[in-house]
Design goal:
Blueprint (H helix, E strand, L loop, with lengths): L4 E4 L3 H12 L4 E4 L11 E4 L1 H9 L3 H7 L5 E6 L5 E6 L2 H7 L4 E4 H10 L6 E2 L4 E7 L2 E6 L4 E4 L1 E4 L6 H7 L4 E14 L11 E5 L4 E6 L6 E9 L10 E2 L2 H7 L7 E9 L6 E2 L2 E3 L32 H4 L3 H15 L6
Parallel strand pairs: 1-2, 1-11, 2-7, 4-13, 11-19
Antiparallel strand pairs: 3-6, 4-5, 8-9, 9-10, 12-15, 12-17, 13-14, 14-15, 16-17, 18-19
This protein binds flavin-adenine dinucleotide.
Length: 337
């Protein structure tokens, strides 16, 4: 009889693993604590490395159809709009790295991954609380009082991995003292105002990243990282206070606050008996934000080209702010600069 495998967590890592195993005829059962999947308002950058994995599980055509392939990643000064450097990400980069660099909505990626896993292999509303290692496998216990058994278990339960805690003991994560505010909004709300395809705005101690998340450029993602050491709640859905943020910072902020960014202490031991750690849950190294699932971007920055695209040469920060504010204000998302 084929061994049974339990994957804890139906995030990007857990679903990708289950899809890859399913493709090879190996059934794995995922246990996810959330009662349902929701489409979080957030984007994700898929580097060529990550795209090769999606290609391997047959998702490339679907992802290409929905995601946006930017010509480049531009970097700009926060106050003047000056282009400081530009990383090519279009056809040339794709030829060089053998796969595209794509920008997409997290919900679209999650949905695509979930479509590769038979629904009967995903058990929702199953929060793992205990693991009992026996000679003949692993007994799993869930918060709702139910239990299950598997020959092996994979921890794909994120940075606060319960499985990892059960293997390695309680650990603390280190707060970075920074908070990511994010939102997605319909591009129509920009009322024709041109933005870069993918841009990072660099301030002295904070940044904004903004890019399209759909192939037809009808949706925009906005995320920032701001120093806020006193805020320690960690969440993907906590709501920021606009008035509070406005009074403290001139920097651009979105409505959703992704909670305090954290790093897990480096560990050489994310493997235990019949268990394996994956993604943020099994991270063997402390990892900077934006690196967990794809691990690294396609390459280094290239020299400044002849001049910035017209869109921002004529639109320094206050004009960009005006348009983004207007757009997000109409969507009720509370984006402002
Ligand atoms: C603001 C921000 C921007 C980012 N941008 C990028 C980017 O552009 N590109 C990129 O590659 N990466 C990016 N990352 C990193 C990336 O999002 C993570 O590395 C990735 O989501 C980790 O995937 P995972 O499957 O390991 O964990 P998660 O996605 O955290 O999934 C863990 C799953 O396990 C479930 N779970 C947790 N505990 C239990 C339990 N006890 N029982 C059952 N289920 C449980 C959770 O509900 C969740 O569904 C970003 C991160 C942040 C915070």
């Amino acid at each position: 009889m084929a061994p049974s495998l339990a994957i804890i967590g139906a995030g990007m890592g857990g679903l990708t693993l289950a899809a890859a195993l399913h493709q090879r005829g190996i059934a794995a059962r995922i246990y996810e604590q959330a009662p349902r999947f929701v489409r979080l308002g957030a984007g994700i950058q898929m580097s060529p490395n990550a795209m090769r994995v999606l290609r391997g599980i047959g998702l490339e055509p679907r992802i290409r159809a929905t995601a946006f392939q930017p010509r480049s990643w531009t970097n700009r000064d926060w106050d003047t709009g000056a282009l400081t450097n530009e990383l090519p990400l279009g056809a040339d980069a794709e030829a060089k790295y053998g796969a595209p660099y794509l920008l997409m909505h997290r919900g679209d990626l999650h949905e695509a991954l979930a479509s590769c896993v038979p629904s009967e292999c995903i058990a929702l509303d199953k929060k793992l609380v205990e693991l009992d290692w026996r000679g003949d496998g692993v007994a799993l216990r869930f918060a709702d009082g139910t239990s299950a058994r598997a020959d092996a278990v994979v921890a794909a339960d994120g940075i606060h991995s319960r499985v990892r805690e059960l293997w390695l003991g309680a650990e603390t994560t280190n707060a970075t003292g920074r908070v990511a505010y994010r939102t997605t909004f319909p591009a129509a709300l920009l009322q024709g105002f041109a933005i870069d395809q993918c841009c990072k705005w660099w301030g002295p101690d904070r940044h904004i990243v903004i890019y399209y998340v759909t192939s037809n450029r009808d949706e925009v993602y906005f995320v920032t990282s701001v120093p806020e050491p006193e805020f320690t709640v960690e969440s993907w859905s906590a709501t920021g206070d606009l008035g509070d943020r406005r009074s403290r910072s001139p920097a651009p902020l979105g409505r959703r606050r992704d909670g305090a960014a954290r790093r897990r202490r480096a560990s050489d031991d994310a493997i235990h008996g019949a268990g394996r750690g994956l993604g943020d849950g099994g991270c063997r190294r402390a990892q900077p934000l934006h690196r967990g699932c794809a691990r690294r971007h396609a390459g280094g920055l290239c020299p400044l080209r002849d001049g910035p695209p017209r869109t921002h040469r004529a639109h320094p920060r206050h004009l960009v702010a005006e348009h983004l504010h207007a757009a997000a204000g109409q969507s009720g998302l509370g984006l402002w600069l």
